[in-house]
Amino acid sequence: MDEIKTRAGGKILEAKKTSPEYALFGEKIQKVYSQGGKNLDVLKGIDFKIKMGEIIAIVGPSGAGKSTLLHILGLMDNPSSGELTLLGWNVEKMKETEKDNLRNKYIGFLFQFHYLLPDFTLLENVSLPLRIQGFKEKHAKDLAAELLVAVGLKERMTHFTSQVSGGEQQRAALARAMVSKPSLLICDEPTGNLDLERGEEIRDLIWRIARAQGSTVLVATHNPEIAKNADRILKIVDGKIV
Ligand SMILES: Nc1ncnc2c1ncn2[C@@H]1O[C@H](COP(=O)(O)OP(=O)(O)O)[C@@H](O)[C@H]1O
Ligand SMILES: [Mg+2]
User: Fold this and answer.
1) Which of 67, 189, 236 to mutate to test the pocket of ligand 1 (most atoms within 8 A of CB)?
2) Domain CATH for 216
3) Cα separation, 76 vs 95, whole angstroms
4) pTM for the full model?
5) How many domains does one find in the chain?
């Protein structure tokens, strides 16, 4: 990680060296959406402490607020109130550009839909996050190839997105999420489009690669099979952790 440079890199690298005890620390996180003059209380004061390297499943019924919480923890949305410390950074005090850098550099995302670029090969797709961070093409491709091998796509690297199956697309998306060795991997229903067997494959790969890299993982899922083997399960019901 330390060789990666970004515009605000210096400051973020410094913070990372302190190696905070908690990857995520949240106090009284609230989220209120206002729609058509009405307020919708989605998160009603959520507290959590997540240690570095923990694998956490976030479960709860549809509409419970899982995605809303992950958007906040992935710095894609702001809480209405409450305090969030991410990798030792007090998010509230950060500028938007600092948050962008922190997100680009230290957080990987995996969603229900893969969002791979159709006109690129799997190797190019997985290289892209590193190219954006300024890695030379050869170095980026070497690292991307390593990840593609790790997710079992050695023979598919030069295929285009549309030339591989749904399960393979999702494995490539996982490789892309993990190629820059993020401190935090955020997965929102990562198996939602897959059958059980493909889903379990992805789950096992997430666990394996995250453990190997020492990444902290949050996986939101409504599937109890996917939550299996997590270090801890956080259950959200009616906007609160129960
Ligand atoms: N941008 C938004 N504006 C208004 N309401 C929203 C928005 N995003 C989500 N919601 C509402 O917040 C609640 C929680 O949604 P979500 O976090 O997606 O739940 P989950 O991921 O657990 O299914 C739902 O009632 C949903 O309709
Ligand atoms: Mg959701």
Assistant:
1) 67
2) 3.40.50.300
3) 13
4) 0.91
5) 1
